[in-house]
Specification:
This protein has 381 residues and is an alpha/beta fold. The protein has helices spanning 2-5, 12-22, 25-30, 33-40, 44-54, 57-72, 123-138, 151-161, 183-192, 209-219, 234-244, 263-271, 280-286, 288-295, 316-319, 326-334, 341-348, 352-365, and strands at residues 75-79, 98-103, 112-117, 142-145, 166-169, 194-197, 223-227, 249-253, 275-276, 298-300, 306-308, 368-371, 374-377. Strands 1-2-6-5-4-3-7-8-9 form a 9-stranded mixed β-sheet, with helices on both faces. It has a two-stranded antiparallel ribbon with strand order 10-11. A two-stranded antiparallel sheet has the order 12-13. The longest helix is centred in the first third of the chain and has 16 residues, at 57-72. The radius of gyration is 21 Å and the shape is globular.
């Protein structure tokens, strides 16, 4: 997989097409040019050039440098399909073929909340992001964000202050983590959870990297909370991606009615595709079964502060392996054949918003998988 990714002209989309069509990265490397062309949907001449580039002696040196530097820095490289690869992320339409991981990803990190928002946030936005991240980390959620200035940094710091887990998904290689001013923050995040990237070690923070980074933030989480977003912003785009392509719950924190910084949040709430949230209890309620499992161990007082009553995070993954809810049983019964979200909604009479949450939980259980916009029942589901 690393050889493919380091081959010029072989991006994540082409790699995904090849692996899907040919069965594995190894089979892709062994395939003849005509089969590669069919898999990548390109001419046989172009496929032949890419095949030669894959096996160029230069690739050997590139691979050796990448492995050696990752090992020296204590960074693990995890491929799609391997046991340590995040389960939810593997189910999005275009999962990254490889993840560079500094720190540790755990199975319980599947119970995650993404928090996104403006880099140029107000004091109010920074305060709310840190407060909510603190509460949610106490409740047992892993807080996922992008490691950037503003709302991202406040979210990571709130989770760290609570002693919880947090994951930063960055838009550069881990050898040159961006922004450089967050070096100390990334050290803390790696010690608490993980700093991860889909890019080779020395990839610079190019503008085109960040939209791709955003799909990973959404893909890792059960839901996305937006804290301060302009009407047109990266956070707004991430939220749209989460609800339309990943089937995630989207929530928004209201701001001052006259604040341009919160215009995007107000627009999401007004249009009805984001739930208004003001504390951890609201967020846990929005996350369906997973949220209720965690909420059982947390009491949220009238002042909005979450108080830990039990070690909620301990053994959470095991709690998700219990009996299916009535809605989940309806979904499983309806999946005698692959169906789209709209087809499932018609067949089960479960409201779309609830259905998305139930499908996410079934993916976590391993009972359902996504493929090409369709949901498929796994064996024994």
């Amino acid at each position: 997989m690393l050889r493919l990714l380091l081959t010029p002209g072989m991006g994540a989309v082409r790699i995904s097409r090849c692996v899907a069509a040919l069965g594995s990265a190894a089979a892709t490397l062994e395939a003849a040019s005509d089969r590669l062309g069919q898999a990548m949907r390109c001419s046989s001449g172009q496929a032949s050039k890419l095949r030669s580039a894959m096996h160029d002696a230069e690739r050997e040196a590139d691979i050796a440098r990448e492995w050696d530097e990752a090992a020296e820095r204590g960074i693990e490289i995890i491929a799609l399909g391997e046991p340590g690869y995040p389960r939810l992320l593997g189910h999005i339409p275009d999962p990254p073929p490889l993840l560079w991981v500094r720190g540790e990803l755990r199975p319980d990190d599947a119970l995650a909340l993404a928090m996104v928002g403006s880099r140029r946030c107000t004091h109010y936005g920074r305060e709310q992001a840190e407060r909510l991240a603190y509460q949610c980390a106490q409740a047992g959620l892993c807080v996922v964000s992008g490691g950037a200035y503003g709302i991202d940094a406040a979210s990571h710091r709130g989770a760290l202050r609570a002693g919880g887990r947090t994951v930063a998904v960055i838009g550069s290689g881990l050898a040159d983590a961006y922004p450089a001013e967050h070096h100390a923050l990334f050290e803390e995040v790696a010690a608490s959870g993980a700093v991860i990237s889909e890019f080779p070690m020395h990839t610079p923070p190019s503008a085109e990297n960040f939209p791709r980074r955003n799909r990973i933030i959404s893909g890792l989480a059960l839901g996305v909370v937006v804290v301060e977003a302009a009407a047109r912003s990266g956070a707004h785009i991430t939220a749209r991606l989460a609800v339309e392509e990943h089937g995630r719950e989207v929530m928004a924190v209201p701001g001052r009615v006259d604040s341009p910084a919160s215009a995007g949040c107000h627009k999401m709430i007004r249009e009805g595709w984001a739930r208004l949230v003001t504390n951890a209890a609201d967020i846990l309620d929005s996350l369906g079964e997973a949220g209720q499992t965690l909420k059982a161990g947390v009491e949220v007082g009238s002042n909005g502060q979450a108080t830990e009553e039990t070690d909620v995070a301990a053994g959470v993954a095991g709690r998700l392996d219990g009996q299916l809810s009535e809605a989940q049983r309806k979904v499983i019964a309806a999946l005698e054949e692959p169906r789209s979200l709209d087809e499932l909604a018609a067949a089960t009479a479960v409201p779309i918003q609830q259905l998305q949450s139930e499908l996410t939980m079934l993916e976590l259980r391993g009972s359902v998988k996504r493929s090409g916009g369709l949901f498929i029942r796994r064996g024994g589901g």
